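REVIEWER CHECKLIST
Item 1: Sequence provided? yes
Item 2: Single chain? yes
Item 3: Sequence as submitted:
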Amino acid sequence: MKITECAASGSTDLRVFLDLGVTPLADALVRPEDLDAPEDRFPLQVAFCPESALVQITESVPAEKLFVDNYLYFSSFSDHLLKHSREHALGLIESRGLGPDSLVVELASNDGYLLKNFVEEGIPVLGIDPAPDQAAAANEIGVPTLAEFFGVPLAEKLVGEGRRADVIIANNVMAHVPDLNSFVGGMKILLADDGIITVENPYVRDLIRHVEFDTIYHEHFYYYSCTSVHRLMRRHDMWLNHVEYFPDLHGGTLRWHIGHHQNQSETVLGYLAEEHEAGMDTFAYYEEFGHRVEAVKTGLLDLLGGLRAEGKRIAAYGAAAKGATLVNYVGIGTDLVEYVVDRNVHKQGLHMPGTHQPIRDVSALLEDQPDYVLLLAWNFKNEIMAQQAEYLARGGRFIVPVPTPEVV
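Item 4: Structure as written out by the authors:
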């Protein structure tokens, strides 16, 4: 369904600045027996709303297709993310004085990878995640989890049961919710008066600056700046009070601290001023991005095609959604990249959407020793290259696709 109004402000002034074509759903991995069957494909365009300063896609796909039918992402397969999440949890326990009478709620809690840190400290938790396999995995490790979508109705139900959250955590989910105002309104309802919300999402400044177009897919409805988060929270009578930056997480991630009452730090005020000065609240900041994306496509095709012409064999690492966006937009078929490896056992044996590379265990890199590996999961570059030290020692090389394709 075509989106004609901004999800935050309702404005119809949506200005398109990037068109990635008509692509399959990035998480709709293909079973071997379905390789000849037609795949659902949807337009993938990105627009800017001057009123809300929110960057957003212009096509809506049913949430069940995105987060129930085709969702195989399990957070626990990333060591870097596990470390980051544990530090986050322990920091909240200390700074907020959490204990057995507290309640921590995580939205999009996945397989319980973060909340288990609170459980280990005897702090009550509740996970909420619509993906049934991930919710089941969380419940199995002792993290109570509801397999539901979150919004105002569920928040009102929980408050009606006497539950109010001292802490709400929403990591890499506020980009994923079709009804954004219901999601934020639900957080406001569920949050205790003196509670805190922490929200993490990739920073749209880094997306633009580093040409991270492959982080755009139908599952990601929105791409945030501090300005757009500030305006969204004021719409719901809440305040963006602080911000932290993690340059090595998902290509550059911000953690926003939100509450019912105004207590804005110098840091967040600085970000808001810098974004205004840079023009991030104007269309002009974004309008040339499409040309830069086209340059990456051309450069990557030239690099891969040249290597194949020399007889080199190429695999790829990371069967994540961002990888699906990249191979489909650039047009990287099995003639260029033979297969993809991934640590996630739930993806192994399946095929990439659209381009149909088989997905294998990472052990294939040492068993097969391809000459080059296209690093689709470049956001975990350091972690992956450390894991693959033996592959590199044998002469293997990685190709990092953005911001400019290069061999490392």
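Item 5: Key structural point noted by reviewer: The longest strand covers residues 191-202.
Item 6: Recommendation: ____
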